# Entry
Amino acid sequence: MDTLIDLFANAQAALYESVMQPIAFAVGLGNRLEDVFDGTGWLLVGLIQIAIMVAVIGPLQRWRPVEAVTDTRAVYTDVIYTLIHRLGLFRVVLFLLVEPVLDTLLGELRVQGVGTFHLEDLWPGVTDGPLTSFVLYLVVFDFVNYWLHRAQHQWSWWWALHALHHSQRQMTQWTDNRNHLLDDLMGAVIWVCIAQLIGIAPTQFVAVVAITQLFENFQHANLRLSFGALGERLWVSPRFHRLHHAVGLGHESSQGVKTVLGGHNFGVLLPWWDVLFGTANFDVRFESTGIRDQVEQGVDYGEGFWSQQRLGIKRLMQALGFSSAR
# Structure
């Protein structure tokens, strides 16, 4: 673990000094060099992730695809979302607009005596090592992700945004980042706040985010793969997550004779939470993906990036009662 951290730190420093620092001075960000250095780390993580996606997950999709990809335009749109997130464009907004506000608020809390504690300190001698503390934080953030994901499917206003993610009928490794930017912003703010409150080290936070994102790419892959009866209950597989995207299954629950918002298989890395809270579906099948009203009623969720973002805001306004127009 220490060796990997050192290798990453050296690569980050080299990329910062040779590329990012000169650019920062050129565009007038000389007073934000610390943020630029942090952003360099996220850029490096994104480049590594994309390399693994292309070199590893891509060949797996070609090896055992669930379906033939016929709508390449939809996949190209997902690639745009991935590049926006993994190459740091989304992080720029966080660094420049959101994090200063969060830093001010959290700083005020500390002035009032509400200090940050380190979660691993609750078990001294057990979670002192970097690997064990990393696993602890990974499990904690995955638990948070499970409930965030359920909220996205339970609250109609949040589903209005999150539905964009489920509108992809040709799911591939690039689909993970097909989200409304406002949806992503809310999730990122919650993650940053929790990271501050439980005291995770910055390097561990980057590692937790990076590993979570990379496995999410794998889970969304157009890949006919199950982990078997035992493995499916230990780690989320492409089959398990594809059921979450299945039409009428992953985003709906039965309530008597009605179907309401809800669904199955909300776990991001660990299916344990779905088992524990009764939302798991381990059927060994590979279903078509999409949203029921999209398939049965032809509801438009947009084809390109901008139309998808615009329609997401329109659905949100409808859910909040500000518009009755369809």
Observations:
- The chain has a mean pLDDT of 90.
- The chain has one domain: 2-319.
- Residues 33-63 form the longest helix (31 residues).
